[in-house]
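#data-curation
PF: Archiving a pair of folding outputs for the training set. Convention for this channel: one message per protein, sequence first, structure tokens after, nothing in between. First:
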Amino acid sequence: MAGSRVKLDLRKTLFLLPNMITLSSIFCGFDSIRLSGGASLEGGDDDYYRASLLLVYALFFDMLDGRVARLTKTQSAFGLQIDSLADVVSFGIAPALLVYKWSLFHLSTFGLVVSFAFAAAGAVRLARFNVLSMGEGGKPQKPSKYIVGLPVPGAAGILVSLVVANHAVGGSLSSERYVWPMMGLTVFLAFLQISTIRFRSFKDLTLNARTIGLVLFAVVSSAVISFKTEPAIVLVWLLSFYVMIGLVEALDHARRRALAKRRIHGITHDEPPESFPPAS
């Protein structure tokens, strides 16, 4: 009909926004794979540096899409699934190929297996996360204070930040000299992803002395590292610090559980004789 106006559904329009941000993360991962696949150390590490920067941008988009979805109240089961698929590409396959072409190729087939193990661990970690995050009808539940296993973007971020920092300082981490430490780090990060160690999600922070102390320490130490070395190393430090927080809290939790079991065991065996039935 002439003169009629198309009614714009604002909610449907807002629903597209976080998903477009997620697709931007997938594009960054896809282009990073393209660069890593065609790069070689004979021509310098510029292509690897650009590939790692693309994954840093993917990290930014990954942090942004969930916050935009919560802000616009457009969280959905579809958003949960596409976000995990994006993480498999950008933080599973892309960094695995990057670390293989950049360093682990020195170990030939063994390096390929280790790189694949990192990507496979990320896929398993994301599948478990989706199962734990889905409520009735497949809708995502409210984010909890802790996440089981190291988040895939965090594990990928450590590898990516090392490539960026190495380029900034003109280092030689990609050489055969450091291939075994890089292999050990890759295996360790793969293990942390599929482990049951709990890491903070920072989505339900409470302002207490402990939280404020951690934030202040992270800010001050990052400023010192940036001033004394290169700003690119700050990302390596912050992500490593995040992993250390999770490991320290896991050890403290295990210690408390062991003390509680010992206390219960001691109470059971220290009861007075009157509490036991008489011998027959």
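PF: Second:
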Amino acid sequence: MHIPEEEILLHDHGDGVVHSHSHTHGDGHSHGHTHTQTRAVINRLSRAIGHLESVKRMVEDGRDCTEVLVQLAAVRSALNSTAKVILKDHLEHCINNAGEGDQDQLQALNEAIDKFMS
């Protein structure tokens, strides 16, 4: 069974607010929903984006490579933490509420985890 890919686009207008848009590729539909952690995820992503912008400025300014690598590791850690929040929220609100025998949700989750982990 083909699971359509959902693309999430994030952009920042420079005002510190990150806007996201999603759409599904393929012949299926995305399941739009709000989770209890949406605000926390958006805040975490905004901080990670700001941190990454700082790292970009470090590179532009010719800062020491070891400093840049340490800061990139911090950004990666922040993104991994955010992914854990999203995964837990998804498990609580989507997988937990999926009907018995609804293998599509589990397959989609497994595919998303595989993509995230690679």
